[in-house]
Amino acid sequence: MRLKRLLKRSLKRGVTLVEILIVLAIVGMIAGGVAIYAVPKFKEGQIKTAHNNGKLLQPIADAWRAGHSNDCPTIQRLKEEREVAATTDINDPWGHPYVIRCDELDTVIVSWGPDGKEGTQDDIREPDLPTQK
Fold first, then answer.
1. Which of 38, 50, 132 is CA-nearest to residue 95?
2. Which of 54, 104, 111, 133 could form a disulfide with 92 if both were Cys (CB 3.0 to 4.6 A apart)?
3. Per the domain annotation, does 73 fall within a domain?
4. What is the reported pLDDT for 101?
């Protein structure tokens, strides 16, 4: 009888603070594990996106140069002249505009990478030509 009363009373009182803290600790550990896995994958995704965007923009810039006395376009000019769709994001995944570099033969799309600084190791070039010094 006494056990029955005790069980009934414990069912009425709800969840204790300790139980809530235990659940929160478990959820926090799961979230931490997901973050450890997801953050590097997100960074890899940004780099792949920059490469893919460069691969899409490079032939457009080449074609534009062929019709404009081999001048070197800017990404903004390609957008203004509707060579790329008006809805096209002309910024890399880190929010910096793509840069088009031209020489006599090659047209290269460049993103300054995660650090946003020119000439560092994380720069992304498409096509990935060897740098000349």
1. 50
2. 111
3. yes
4. 94
